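Now for today's protein:

——
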Amino acid sequence: MSLNTTTHSFTVGEFQITPSSHSQDAGHHTASLCISREEVGRTTQHTYSFLPEFRTGHSAMIYASVLGHYWMLNPDSGH
């Protein structure tokens, strides 16, 4: 079972960045990051899931948020 908890999204230019954490059966949490961009008539969305497991959902959320901030400063970094 995976439960999804999402923080407040933040917007950078034309991108919306949404970090989230997911609780796993073993009591660990994983992080993911959704980056979306709205254009006329369509929305492009990319979701990234990360391998590290965290002891708390809060830690996973911080990890995803930091990667989102890093991406917005370095959009060509591949994250």
Notes: The mean pLDDT is 85. The longest helix spans residues 57-73. The beta strands are 3-6, 10-12, 15-23, 29-39, 42-49.
